[in-house]
Fold this protein.
Amino acid sequence: MYAVTGGVPKYIELFCERSDVYRSIQDCVVNPSGYLYGEPYFLLQQEVTEIGSYFSVIKAIAAGNRKLSSISTVLEIKATSLTKYLKTLIDLDILEREVPVTEENPEKSKKGLYKIKDNYIRFWFAFVYPNRSFIESGNSRIVMDKIRKGVLSSHTAFVYEDICREKCGI
């Protein structure tokens, strides 16, 4: 449940009303009228004006493009044009930039990797956003099958690693 909700009390409350985590995802997330289906739109709409540009950046990172050069290549824009979006998303606590501890000057390191920090946003961009056409055409069963097959290996495992790093102070 934490891997999907990120510990947000309202999200947990919604999930606790159902019999299991998959039922909660089905009712609250993979349902166009579910409370959490449009949450990323709502969250970003409150903070930024160019929501489409920010969604494109997050989508690129969710697809595995974590280096600045990879993100700019996928989006077909200059890396220097991306910094504004990345900084805003970091300030909003949606993204974080990871730099190897061996780097002497982490702020200027070219070895930095961007990661979606928020568990719910990471889950939503991995499973909901790329499958909106299925969901909105009434085929959420297909999306739920994808979630059941991939949530442990491609999402929950990374959340667990983050928790372990946090507990160990890494």
